[in-house]
Amino acid sequence: MSGPPLLSVNRLGVRFPTPNGELSAVEDVSLEVFAGRTTAIVGESGSGKSVLSRAILRLLPRKAIISSESSIAFDGQELLRMSPRDLQKVRGRRIAMVFQDPMTSLNPVRTIGAQLVEGMVLHLGLDGASASRRALDLLTRVGISSPDKRLKQFPHQLSGGMRQRVVIAMAIACEPELLIADEPTTALDVTVQAEILDLLRQLQQERRMAMILITHDLGVAAGHSDDIVVMYAGQIVEKQSTLKLFREPRMPYTRALLGAIPGLRDVPHMRLKTIPGRPPTVYGTGRGCRFAPRCDQRRSRCEHDAPVLAEDSAANLLRCWYPMKGAA
Amino acid sequence: MTASDAPILSVRNLAVVYPLGRGRSLRATEKITFDVHSGEALALVGESGCGKSSVARAIMQLHRNTEGEIRIEGHDLNALSRAHLKALRPKFQMIFQDPISSLNPRRRVREILEAPLRIIGVRDATERARSIAKVLELVSLDPQTVLNRYPHEFSGGQCQRISIARALILEPALLICDEAVSALDVSVRAQVLNLLNELRERLGLSMLFISHDLAVVRNIADRVAVMYLGRIAEIGAAEAIFEKPAHPYTAALLSAVPEPDPEATSERLPLKGGELPSPLSPPPGCRFHTRCPVALERCRQVEPQLIAFEDGRSVACHNPFALRVERKTNVEIGAAVGTA
Predict the structure, then answer these.
(1) B312: distance to nearest CA of chain A, Å?
(2) Burial of A61 (0-12, 13-18, 19+ CB in 10 A)
């Protein structure tokens, strides 16, 4: 990894007030993202991965409470203390985001062209004509056929895969340095998913963008990331290079998760490894490790004493008192 | 499976038709023919819009505008009177994708599980209680803690267990699972898949398993039918189809599955055009030819019929085995991830 990180999240904590007290959604999350690399954030539903991504762009609901020691630095600037005006210059221009459902990120009553041009006029100061030309180039770049026709169409006239391509074109229109993709292919069919993931990877490499890929699918993360961050119950439990994480997962949760995925080359009817119980929906109330109740490696310390997030010399992260060694 | 075994479910030339008004109609599936034998799991796979759920709904008689024949244990469902159909219903049951919305939120689990028994006329309360206890044990739920609670008090995985229990309480011969594990988290999905595999083995249950997830299908299916735009592209033993897909669409589909192995270097087979044509105006000839990378001139004109191969599979393609999935993988990693 060369140079300083483009994005550096430090001790991020997000809580939501509820009638029954505050609910912790993300706690003590620290991670770094570098130019030209893709960091995947994986976790089951409720693990806090989407809250984390929205916190980076400050897209959280107003009632969200961000803990005071939190810091999110982008290219040396503190995003959490930035004025709305300055934030506007970063959001959409230097950091862009692609969401799961392309229909909700597109305005249904405006043409594709109008929506593509808007960002470029706003952020890059282009005039209408040159923005339109660029919109045409972008649609071609993301693999949309007859782009001049598409510019005049409305979102509902496009298929799901096509819409997601448009959303990606909008996201890269201002040449962002960081792209956050939150489950970008979850709503798409498998053949379209593969095409969109390949497109994201090509764009990322071409432009040396940093990318955060949020997914629940370890298969997607395996083929399309350099590093993987595993989240459980609002915390990072492990971060390693993608290759090492699959080869030598150290946190028992990661290991169990890998064992629970059926594979194409598995023996039919093979009994999958399961994790007893289910992920907690309310957490941060008990002492000890949050995974302890479901962990087959737990010892008494795990139940009383919360493990801290430890970083080793290779910048790997691990939150576990008794990490596992050797191949999975 | 011996040839003399009569199939539990037998579908012949099924077409599911949706009227669109003004005399027009959409033929969501056509010429669908397959059998499901006792104790066997047949998976229907394909992408959205291929008609796999329409087939399931037609079998369950949730959609009656169909052509062709559906037989359950030899009885032609279209020829049965309402009363006879009702009497046959316990034999075939279904579980749905969204476990929470498929349970009535205002009924306790006890009432949810009792309903099927009441419908078939089990009047004796102790007998009903016995059936409920038995079925809850099958799906590993504790009667003490679940019976008096409402669906919203359970997680998705638990609700899916309750749905399975409701489907099994009448001791069906056939269970139709429509994307039954798609909405579940990885760790919970593994639990439900194990449960379904176990039930198939213990009860000799037959299954029609509808899914878009090929890795899940690999785990559960004995046979696979791949559907594309309302037709069966390829049907046969899971082993044969996963090892050596004959239809170019099957090959492309398999190559697109993201594998949980960073060193899997299998090449993705790209499709042309990328988009699914509209089922309202399907392409002439082979329906797949607009996206097929190995389409021949003939494919544009003549619709291929399902042809039986030596290994027992049938394929509707003029150019079978032209696309090959190359899988070079680190065996060690593959095995480690699989059996960890």
Answers:
(1) 18
(2) exposed
Backbone φ and ψ for A166, nearest 5 degrees, come out as: -65, -45
Assess contact for A106 and A163: CB atoms under 8 A.
yes
> In this structure, are residues B110 and B103 in contact, taking their beta carbons and an 8 Å threshold?
no
- B223 neighbourhood in chain A, CB within 8 Å: none
Of A44, A143, A263, the CB nearest to B260: A263
Tell me, what amino acid is at A240? Q
Q: In this structure, which CATH number among 3.40.50.720, 3.30.300.20, 3.90.640.10, 3.40.50.300 belongs to the domain A7-106+178-318?
A: 3.40.50.300
Paired tokens of B121: 């006329």
pTM for the model: 0.87
ipTM strictly over 0.95? Answer: no
Altogether, the residues listed in chain B come to a count of 340
Where are the domains positioned within chain A? 7-106+178-318
The residue of chain B with its CA nearest to that of A243 is: B262
Residues in chain A: 328
Q: Report how far apart, in Å, the C-alpha atoms of B4 and of each of B1, B38, B39, B69, B174 are.
A: 8, 12, 14, 20, 19
In the A/B pair of chains, how many CB contacts fall below 8 A? 163
Q: Using alpha carbons, list the distances in angstroms from residue B331 to A226, A265, A273, B261, B335.
A: 21, 10, 19, 10, 6
B229 token code pair:
């735009």
Closest CA to A90 of A101, A104, A80, A100: A80
Q: Which two tokens stand for residue A180?
A: 């956050």
Distance, CA of A168 to chain centre: 15
Q: What are phi and psi of B29, to 5 degrees?
A: -140, 160
Structure letter (DSSP) for residue A156: G
Q: Where are the domains of chain B?
A: 246-340
Q: Inter-chain contact B262–A242, Cβ cutoff 8 Å? A: yes
Instruction: Say yes or no: B333 contacts chain A, CB-CB below 8 A.
Output: yes
Written as one string, the DSSP assignment of A180-236 is EEESTTTTS-HHHHHHHHHHHHHHHHHHT-EEEEEES-HHHHHHH-SEEEEEETTEE
d(CA B177, CA B166): 13
Q: What is the largest CA-CA distance in chain B?
A: 67
Q: DSSP assignment, residue A91?
A: B
For residue A193, what are the CA distances in angstroms to A216, B259, B334? 14, 13, 22
Amino acid identity at A196: I
Sequence-ordered strand ranges (E) for chain A: 7-18, 21-33, 38-42, 65-66, 71-74, 77-78, 95-98, 178-182, 210-215, 227-232, 235-241, 310-311, 317-318
Across the interface, which of A189, A219, A259 has its CB nearest the CB of B48?
A: A189
Mean pLDDT of residues grouped by 10 in chain A (328 residues)?
Answer: 86 91 90 95 90 93 94 95 92 91 88 93 91 92 88 91 91 94 88 88 92 94 95 95 95 93 89 85 78 93 94 92 89
